[in-house]
Amino acid sequence: MSNSHVISPNTSPGIDLAEQVRPALERPPMFKVLLLNDDFTPMDFVVIVLEKFFQKDADEATRIMMAVHQSGVGLCGVYPFEIAETKALQVVEYARDHHHPLQTAIEKE
Ligand code: TYC
After folding, report:
1. Nearest C-alpha to atom 13 of ligand 1 is from which residue?
2. Taking CA 45 as the corner, what is the angle to CA 95 and CA 36, rounded to the nearest 5 degrees?
3. Which terminal residue of the chain has fewer beta carbons within 10 Å of its beta carbon, N or C?
4. How close is the Cα of 29 to the center of ligand 1, in Å?
5. Whose C-alpha lies nearest to ligand 1, atom 5?
6. What is the atom index within ligand 1 of the atom nearest the CA of 102?
7. pLDDT, tens only, 52-97
8. CA-CA distance, 88 to 103, in Å (whole number)?
9. Which domains are present in the chain?
């Protein structure tokens, strides 16, 4: 009978066990999802986006929207790469579906 189904510990002799397992426990790199200002997207729509895609309450969504409006860019949330990328794309697609030019960016933390 084959032993190929037996899971053996992935250890190396002579290297401290805690050191060997540490890489598997490291946190993934995190990415900021940023919202960019433009002159056309309605403020109310941006607030809805922040509530819908980033789970912000109305007060926090309004605060972020105004920060973007006044400074040009604002932080929506921080996620592992694939989640950040997906949210950034979903927002742009949702905005385009509603004929708004809203844009996003992602940036490594
Ligand atoms: N500047 C827009 C306006 O005056 C509002 C806006 C805010 C647009 C945030 C985009 O990410 C944005 N209607």
Report:
1. 42
2. 65
3. N
4. 29
5. 43
6. 10
7. 999 999 999 999 999 999 999 999 999 999 999 999 999 999 999 9
8. 8
9. 28-108 (3.30.1390.10)
Sign of CA dihedral 44, 47, 51, 56: negative
Q: In the block, which residue shows the tokens 């066990």?
A: 17
Write down the pLDDT at residue 37. 98
- Measure the CA dihedral 63/67/73/76, to 10°: -10
pLDDT reading at 47 higher than 90: yes
* Torsion sign (Cα): 42, 46, 47, 49: positive
The token duo for 32 is: 């900021």
